[in-house]
């Protein structure tokens, strides 16, 4: 049951960062390396509490579908998405935002359990945890880039 936590400072207001993190369109753009696209539920715009999105993507050469639901939201401080269906046995992804002197601190906590018992645990150690951390960091760096560009323009 790995827990991956990342932190990133963004030079943009908390509301901008919060909305970028829950934007279906930004998510799809940030995960272009896996051809991720929303194919069910909310497929564009900002996802809200109680809504779901189904993502289709290619990971490890295999096309996969994953449905996540926003189970908690406290705008603009925190939201949680949890897997409803997909490759993981379960996951809970918490997004937290804190106002700082010159922007926003964004904290991501991805708590998951791999499928397949001990084989899943072995996969975590060998490659999956590292892969997921890299995936989340890349996504968050994209959010940072877009939020800071928006802050300059906006």
Give a quick set of tags describing it:
154 residues, alpha+beta, seven-stranded antiparallel β-sheet, 7 strands, globular
Report the span from N to C terminus: 41 Å
| Helicity level | 25-40%
Order of helices and strands: EHHEEEEEEH
Give the mean pLDDT: 94
- Unreliable residue stretches: none
Strand content: 35-45%
Give the number of helices: 3
Order of strands in the sheet with most strands:
1-7-6-5-4-3-2
Q: What integer value in Å does the Rg equal?
A: 15 Å
Largest sheet: 7 strands, antiparallel
Structural class: alpha+beta
Number of strands: 7
- The coarse silhouette is globular
Describe the structure.
The chain is α+β, with helices and mostly antiparallel strands and 154 residues long. Helices cover 34% and strands 42% of the residues. The protein is built from 3 helices and 7 strands. It has helices spanning 14-21, 24-30, 117-153; strands at residues 3-10, 37-41, 52-59, 62-74, 78-85, 90-100, 103-113. It has a 7-stranded antiparallel β-sheet with strand order 1-7-6-5-4-3-2, with helices on one face. A hairpin with a 2-residue loop joins β3 and β4 (62-74). α1 (14-21) crosses α3 (117-153) and α2 packs across α3. It starts with a strand and ends with a helix. The mean pLDDT is 94.
């Amino acid at each position: 049951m790995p827990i991956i936590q990342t932190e990133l400072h963004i030079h943009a207001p908390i509301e901008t960062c919060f909305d970028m993190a829950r934007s279906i369109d930004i998510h799809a753009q940030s995960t272009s390396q896996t051809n991720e696209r929303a194919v069910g539920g909310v497929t564009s715009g900002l996802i809200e509490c109680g809504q779901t999105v189904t993502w289709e993507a290619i990971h490890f050469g295999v096309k996969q579908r994953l449905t996540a639901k926003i189970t908690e939201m406290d705008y603009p401080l925190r939201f949680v998405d949890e897997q409803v269906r997909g490759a993981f046995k379960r996951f809970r992804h918490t997004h937290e935002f804190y106002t700082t002197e010159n922007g926003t601190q964004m904290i991501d906590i991805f708590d998951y359990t791999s499928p397949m018992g001990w084989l899943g645990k072995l996969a975590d150690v060998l490659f999956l945890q590292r892969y997921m951390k890299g995936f989340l960091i890349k996504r968050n760096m994209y959010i940072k880039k877009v939020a800071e560009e928006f802050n300059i323009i906006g």
